[in-house]
What does this fold into?
Amino acid sequence: MPRPRHCRRVAMVPHVAYYKPRGVPLSALQCVELAVDELEALRLADLEGLYQEEAARRMNVSRQTFGRIIESAHKKVADALVHGKALSIEGGPIEVTEPQANRPEPPCRRGGPMGGPHRCRRRGAGRGHTT
It folds into this structure.
């Protein structure tokens, strides 16, 4: 059994769940699934221009894990663009935080010593979309 993934901090859950080529019905397209944490990695590295170490700190993962996340995200986006596939954004163990400077962010706890509830949310467990 694989080890469970730790929560990844993301600044927001996207309002748009699909991107697709214009003029082609979604039902006629193959779909590439991009996890919310992969979108966050793209935002931090490519849009904000952060180094991997700082981006990893913001997402509450190691630099090596961030490198794997961003590599996977780049491959999925490239596959969707080059091969004309739809891009679905959902899923993954995430913790949504407000992006505020100088504010300590709480750790993702899985019922730890403070007895707090599990704040990590797994989004989009299902894969069969019919929209």
User: Anything to note?
Assistant: The first strand starts at residue 8 and ends at 10. Residues 41 and 70 are 6 Å apart (CA to CA). The chain has three helices and six strands.
